[in-house]
Amino acid sequence: MDLGLGISKKWDYFMDKFFLFLTFLGAVLVPLFLIGILIVFLKEASLAIQKFGFVSFIFSSEWDPVFEKFGGAVPLTGTIIVAFIALILGVPIALGIAIFVSEVCPNFLKQPIRLAVDLLAAIPSIIYGLWGLFTLAPIHARYIEPFLQKVFTPIPFLGKLFEGTPLGIDLFTAGIVLSIMIIPFTASIAIESFYLVPRVLKESAYGMGATKWEVIRDVMFPYCRIGIFGGIGLSLGRALGETMAVAFALGNINNFPTSLLTPTTTVTVKLANEFTEADKDIHLSALFYLALLLYIMSLFIIGSSKYFIMRVREK
Amino acid sequence: MRERVFKIRKLTSTSILTITGLCALWGIFWLFFIIFDVIRHGIASINLSLFLETPTPPGEPGGGLKHAFIGHFLITLGAISLGIPLGILAGTFLAEYGRNYRLSKVISFLADTMVSVPAILIGAFVYAIMVKPLGHFSGWAGSVALAIIMFPVVIRSTEHMLKLVPWTLREAAFALGAPYYKVILQVLYPAIKMGLLTGALLAIAREIGEAAPLLFTSFNNNFLSYNMSGPMASLTVTIFVYAMGPYDYWHTQAWAAAFVIAITILILNFIARIILKGGKH
After folding, report:
1. Which residues of A are less than 8 Å from B198 in CB distance?
2. Per-residue pLDDT reduced to its tens digit, B190-223
3. Which of B107, B121, B209 is the closest to A294 by Cβ?
4. What is the pTM of this model?
5. Would residue A28 count as lying in a domain?
6. Fewest CB atoms within 10 Å of the CB: A190, A248, B23, B101?
7. Is residue A288 in a domain?
8. Do residues A306 and A34 make contact, with C-beta atoms less than 8 angstroms apart?
9. Pair A299, A238: CB distance under 8 Å
10. Residue A63: phi, psi to the nearest 5?
11. Taking residues A226-253, what's their average pLDDT?
C-alpha cells in the first residue's frame, strides 16, 4: 500500500464530509431563519400579548403611546383594504396582459412585453413610493380625484367611496401604486401556465367552432386555475408586506378609512414610522405583535400560493 | 338568427381580445411613466457635488450624498460577502448531497417561500437579534438584513443551475476517482460559473433597492462614516428621510439618489441578461 495515497484518501474522505457538513449547515439555515423569526417575534411581542390578549388586540382601534393602550384594528384593516384594492385593480390587468402575450400579440412583441413586465418587478419599491408621492399624488389630487368625485357622487352607493377632500395622499393613490407593483407576479405566473395548456386541447375547442375568447374562457382558464390562483396569491403576499410604496402614498393616521380618499395606515407603515421612535417597551412590543400577525398571515398566503405554483410546474 | 349568434360571439371575442391589448398598454404606460419621471428628475438634479460632498446642516441648500453612497456601498459589500457564499453552499446541498432526501425538497420549498417574506419583517427580526442586544444600530446589522434577503434568491438560482448540469458530467469525474467535494469544486462550479454570476447579479439587483430592512438596522447617519459598527447612511433610507422632509433641495437629492439606484439596477439586469444569452449559444 502506498502510504501517500492512503493519507490522501483519508484526507479526501474527511474533506468530503466537511464540505457536506458546510453545505448542510447552509441549507438548514433556511428553516432556522423561518422558525427563528417566528420565535423572536413571539418573544418580543409577549409583553403586548399578555397585556392585550388576542381578540381585544385585533378588535381594538386605540393606538395611544402616551396612555400605553394599543390595538391593531386600524393597521390590520388598512393592510387588508389596501391589498384588496390593489388586487381588484391589478389582477384583471395582469390576466389581460397574460392573455395578450400568450394568445393575441404577434411574436415580435412577446419578448418586449415580457421584458417590460420583468422591469416593473425590478423597480424597487422606494422608487414607486417616491414617484407616487411627488408625481402621482399631485396628479390625483388635482385632476383624477375631483373628476371621479364628479362622476360618482350622484350614484348612491359608489358616491360614498369618493367622499372627502382630494389630497392625493390616500387609499386610492396607494392602491393604484400597489396595483402596478403587483402586476408582474400574477402576469408572469399566468403566462407560464398558459403555455402549459396542451395544444390539442385548444385545437379541439377551435375545431368545434369556438372563438378565441371562448377557448380562453372555457379551456385555458379552467386548465390553469391552480397556477392563476398561485399567481394571485403571490401578488396578495406582496401587497400585504409592501412597505415603502405605501408609506409614501398612504400617510400614517390611525383612523379607519371612511372613503377611498382618506389616509389611513397599515401594519408595515406603522412599523416603518414608529419602530425606531418607540421609547416604551410596551409600544415596541405592540409593534412586534403587529409584525408577528403580518408574518403569520404572509407565510400562510405565500406558502399556499407557492405550493399551487409548484404543483403546476411538476405537471 | 344563426348568423346573428355567430356575429355576437365573434364581436365579444374581438372586443375582449382588444381589451387585453389595452391591458398591456396600461402596464407599459406606467413603466415608461415611472422610468421617464425618474430620469427627468434625476438628470435635472444630478451633479458632481452629489457624489463628492457630505450633507450641509438641514435647511442649508447644497451639499451632497457622499455619506450615503459610501454607506450603501459598504453595507451592500457586507451583504454580498455573507449572503452569496451561504446561498451557494445551501443550494449545493439541495442539488447535490441532499438531492434524494425529502428534507431537501422541503427546504427548497421553504427557500422559495422565504424569497417573498416582507422585507420590513426581516428588518424587525435583525433589530431584535442584533440591534437590541448590542444596544446600537450598525452597518453590520444592515448587511445581515440584506444578506438574509439575498440568501434564498441565491439558493434558488444555484440549485437551478446545478440541476441543469447533465449527470454524466459528474459520473465522468467520479470514474476518475474524484471525491464528491472535488467534483463540485473543480467540475460543477466551473461549469456553472456564468450561471452563478448571473444569479449573484440578480440577487444584488434585488437587494440594492431595499429600504425597509435598513430602517431599523443600519438606521441613518448625517455624517460620513466608515465604521460598520455604528449607524450608517444608505441611499434608500436617505431617499425615505429626504422625501418625507420639508426642504426642496432634499427632494431634489432624493430624486438624484433614486436615479442612481434605478440606473444601477437596470445595468445589473442588463449584464445578467447578456451573460444568460451568451451562455445559450
Report:
1. none
2. 999 999 999 999 999 999 999 999 999 998 888 8
3. B121
4. 0.93
5. no
6. B101
7. yes
8. no
9. no
10. -140, 90
11. 91
Tell me which of A109-113, A151-155, A279-283, B71-75 is least confident. A151-155
Range of the domain at A101: 55-314
Pairing of strands A63-64, A69-70: antiparallel
Percent above pLDDT 70 for chain B: 99
Cα-to-chain-centroid distance, residue A50: 30
| CB within 8 Å: B128 and A119 | no
Q: How far apart are CA A9 and CA A15, in angstroms?
A: 10
8 A C-beta contact, residue A26 and residue B196: no
Whole-angstrom distance between the N-terminal and C-terminal Cα of chain B?
A: 57
Instruction: Report the interhelical angle of A3-52 vs B102-115 (nearest 10°).
Output: 50
Per-residue model confidence as pLDDT tens digits over B20-68: 999 999 999 999 999 999 999 999 888 888 888 888 888 788 888 999 9
Single-letter amino acid, residue A295: Y
Residue contact A27–B182, C-beta within 8 A? no
- Whether residue A24 contacts residue B97, with contact meaning beta carbons closer than 8 Å, is answered with yes
Contact A298 B118 (CB under 8 A): yes
Query: Is the Cβ of A122 closer than 8 Å to some Cβ of chain B?
Result: yes
What would the grid cell of residue A112 be? 418586449
**Domain boundaries, given as residue ranges, for chain B:** 2-45, 64-280
Residue in the block written with cell 463540485 = B184
For chain A, say whether B28 makes contact (Cβ under 8 Å).
yes
In a domain, A176, yes or no: yes
Phi and psi at residue A165, in whole multiples of 5°? -85, 130
Q: Which amino acid is at A172?
A: F
Average pLDDT, chain A: 90
The chain A residue lying nearest B242, using CA atoms, is A130
- How does pLDDT run across A74-106, given as a tens digit for each residue? 999 999 999 999 999 999 999 999 999 999 999
How many domains does chain A contain in total?
Answer: 1
Residue among A18, A20, A120 minimizing CB distance to B31: A120
CA B219 to chain centre: 19
Residues of B in contact with A105 (CB under 8 A): 21, 24
Phi then psi for residue A64, to 5 deg, are: -130, 95
Interface of A with B in 45-84 (CB under 8 A): none
In a domain, A94, yes or no: yes
The verdict on B138 touching A (C-beta cutoff 8 Å) is no
| Fold (CATH) for B64-280 | MetI-like fold (1.10.3720)
B9/A30 Cβ within 8 A: no
- State the average pLDDT over residues A52-66: 90
Residue of chain B whose Cα is closest to the Cα of A93: B23
State the CATH number of the domain containing residue A130: 1.10.3720.10
Is the Cα torsion angle A243, A246, A249, A250 positive or negative in sign?
negative
User: How does the average pLDDT of chain B come out, rounded?
Assistant: 92
- Looking at the complex, does the CB of residue A6 fall below 8 Å from at least one CB of chain B? no
Q: Which three cell numbers stand for residue B261?
A: 439606484
Q: Do A34 and B87 touch (CB under 8 A)?
A: no
Cβ–Cβ < 8 Å for B202, B153: yes
Q: Which residues have a Cβ under 8 Å from the Cβ of B206 and sit 6 or more positions away?
A: A122, B149, B150, B153
| Cβ contact A26–B90 (<8 Å) | yes
